[in-house]
Amino acid sequence: MSHRIVLTADRTLMSSYNGSMFIGFAACFPRVLPRWLYKRVFCPSQPHTRGEVAVAPAGLRKIQAALLRAGIPPEDIAIAHPEHLSKVIDSKTQVVGINSSDPLGLGPASSTFCSLLGRESYTAYFFRRLMRDRALRTSRAKIIVGGPGTWQLSNGSTRTELGIDCIVEGEGELVAPKLFMDALDGRPLPPVVTGGPVPVGDIPLVVGPTINGTVEISRGCGRGCEFCNPNMRLVRHVPMDRILEEVKINIRTRRRITLHAEDVLRYKAKGMKPDRDEVVGLFERVLELTSEVGISHIALSSALTEPNLIQDLSALTGATKGRRHLYAQTGIETGSPSLVSKHMKGKAMPFEPEEWPGVVRESFKLLSDNRWVPCGTLVMGMPGETREDVEKTVELVEDLRQYESFIVPLFFVPLGELKEDSFFKPESMLPEHWMLLAKCIDHDTHWIPQLMDDLFAQNRLSRAKSSAMKLASWYMQRRLKESLELMRVGKDPRQTSPGISDLEDFQEEEAGRAHS
Ligand code: SF4
Questions:
Q1: Pocket of ligand 1 (CB under 6 A)
Q2: Domain membership of residue 16 as a residue range
Q3: Which of 7, 67, 421, 481 could connect to 72 by a Cys-Cys bridge, CB 3.0–4.6 Å?
């Protein structure tokens, strides 16, 4: 069957990552794992039927819903698996819409891991493979790219090289339908279109299941960190009945739901303090439909402002009784109050910037006491960061060691109000940055065995898969051993130690093992 519109995304976005956003960070790893190990174990593919997927990334589902709302017939639209485009794109296809989150591997996680290890990220590799797909290259269809990674495609020659006709920056639901209609009618497309914040009433309901049962409950954040996407400024909360509709659509195929917001704890909050009744009410209603409810992101200051809410959610979801853990991503960013004051005052609110390190410590304790496992990100190299600032972050990470968690240090990437600044690079790392990196790796390797056991049991991962992941983790730790010793004393290990730059040998060793 022919489709005039084909929607797709690169291979890293077509995976549930075994139901874990922690494993989802693997998309931003440099390509050091053998391809089969990465694709089969870390990033297993969504199944497809004749190239079409039944479960799709939430971003593509929203665009599909916006196109349907604009009157485009359902049979005109297909959501395709990126590695099977030839089964879906044909001579009748007039537009291909692509969702991208990190097309050139310039996002904070990819640029950090890859600049340290000197290889490109899986995100960049698979996006390039998608854009070079034969069916796409030989098609006459117009190519429109949207998603949170389009800032990486702002350069006109990059777009031309990749064959992109138009990029949509920002939110797409209001601007995409006109662009797709123009393409269907043969009208020219502008190279760049900016979609502003979509009013909550105009955010359409998805019409099919999303990967990991992702259901958006709020959009935007309102804390106003200078390095964040400006679209985050305006917070909008999706009404309960619409959330429940999307939950019902999702649980037709799988029971697991992930409630998505920049801060799930502030669902329907009027200010920075969570509205306990609203959040508890939401969880109660969703739990009437399914027992498996997860959370995407929370803010540590929200957790500490309303500690009873954390207890409530643990009790409601069965975490208190030891049946499961609750996992959530969160931003620690720094242990330095002066950097908080300079670039992200809103992150600490309703607390003061000076209180931030204490907020992080106490909220990690609160979360741990209630069987939550946070994955906290840090930013290294923020404009104006001093040696003393980094030392404060090192101290903070030391104090968090006692709590089961994962800490991901990221290089500063110039975005939002700081977009005129420069990318932070390994060459600019102070000895304290290397020590911080070592602290984070030590923290994570301390917790990884426990994390893996908990996560794999909760997500019912097969023994073969969990063994393969444990083997890969053990191998990486072994190869990093010498480098870590240098980093712990503030030295750049890239020139003197083989481990950090030669991880690609794993591919050869594994290939050799496979042939022997
Ligand atoms: S708290 Fe997070 S989502 Fe909100 S503005 Fe800051 S970085 Fe962005």
A1: 221, 223-225, 228, 232, 262, 299, 331, 344, 347
A2: 5-200
A3: 67
Q: What is the ipTM of this complex?
A: 0.99
Residue labelled with tokens 């890859």: 114
Number of compact structural domains in the chain? 2
- Where a domain ends, among 170, 200, 230? 200
Best of 219, 227, 228 for a ligand 1 pocket test (most atoms within 8 Å of beta carbon):
228
Q: Which uninterrupted H or E stretch holds 78?
A: strand 77-79
Closest by CA position to 402, among listed 441, 368, 445: 368
Identify whether 196 is part of a domain.
yes
Mutate which of 218, 223, 263 for ligand 1 pocket (most atoms within 8 A of beta carbon): 223
- Answer whether 150's CB lies under 8 Å from 195's CB: no
Last residue in a domain, options 200, 220, 242: 200
Helices 431-458 and 463-488 cross at an angle (nearest 10°) of: 170
How high is the mean pLDDT in each 10-residue block of the chain (516 residues)? 95 88 82 83 91 97 98 97 97 97 92 83 95 96 96 93 96 97 97 95 97 96 88 89 98 93 97 96 98 96 98 95 91 98 96 98 98 97 97 98 96 92 93 96 90 82 80 80 90 70 46 38
